[in-house]
Amino acid sequence: MSSGTIPRPPEGPPYPPQTAGLGGVPTVIPDIPIDAVFIFLYVCFAATNFTLFNYNRSKGHFFLPSALLGGFSMARILTLCLRIGWATHHHNVSLAIAAGIFVNAGILIVYIINILFAQRILRAKQPKLGWHPLVKTFFVAVYALIGVALALLITLIVISYYTLNLATLHVSEWVLRSAVLYLLIVTLLPLPLLALAFAMPRSPLEENFGTGSLKSKALLLTAGTLICVTIDGFKVGALWSPPRPADDPAWYDSKAAFYVFVFSLEILVLTLYTGFRVHRRFWVPNGSSKRRTYIEPGKSESDGRTYSQDEENISHDQEK
Fold first, then answer.
1. Domains of the chain by range and CATH?
2. CA separation (Å) from 38 to 25, 66, 76, 194, 277?
3. Where are the transmembrane segments (predicted)?
4. Which of 2-16, 61-75, 113-127, 282-296 has the lowest mean pLDDT?
């Protein structure tokens, strides 16, 4: 064997993994029954969120995060179906690659939703700061870098199955670690944004949006963010740990840890956001970004009543 390569079965590429990974190689028992239960749960959340999105949109209440939560649930259904296929076709490395990509990429949808919610709270609590062009540029850069991290994640996972060169694998491993570390920082981002919004002196221009107080929204988002941090922290910790042989996995590579720290916590996030009706709590009027306010056009900020332009003019004349 030439230097700079590692021993792998000769039938590749793609080559089967020689080190342990999250959840290990799925088997008919216990993976398929467990995956079937999770598929059922994700189907329920997908149907619920898509139904809410379409119903609210028909009423003029457009709330994209509901569709994103539905899309995330659909992505997880595909992830679990791939694991079932992999469980019955152990030698199909392509299924292993696809399953690994979806396990790591799907949850990014929820991270983006959390950042969006934090941005709305910041804009409502501190309008001058939240609507500032530099802050908007910051969020655009964060979203763009999420796309870059996702592209690196997918590319490097694929590379790890298609090369035997140790140098290439070593570089890919460290770039992949850097990408997932950035995603962990992104997962944490809503927490300092919320702290900033509430730590600053209360703005006289403070607004609210949707239903419920800003504090209740912040508490809900904090809970969802902490769950996501636990999920991503588990993945980052596993990836940054020294690799173990496939036949001698660490506890974090076990099936129990995989299903608890990934899918079970994701179901908890979906339950939290769907059950506490984020489609009402975090809804903002259409065109808010252009107007730089969450107050609906024609709505009085002081008492919430709606006036026509003529009624407002009459009111001003009476005050004079």
1. 28-289 (1.20.1070)
2. 18, 20, 9, 32, 22
3. 36-55, 62-87, 93-117, 138-162, 174-198, 218-236, 256-276
4. 2-16
19-47 pLDDT per residue, tens: 888 898 999 999 999 999 999 999 999 99
Q: What is the mean predicted confidence (pLDDT) over 1-10? A: 45
Residues with Cβ within 8 Å of 67's Cβ and at least 6 positions away in sequence, in order, are 49, 50, 53
Question: pLDDT grade, residue 13 (50/70/90)?
Answer: confident
Lowest mean pLDDT among 33-47, 66-80, 195-209, 302-316: 302-316
Q: What is the mean pLDDT of residues 295-311?
A: 50
Q: How far is CA 285 from the centre of its chain?
A: 23
- Read off the amino acid at residue 21: G
- pTM, entire model: 0.87
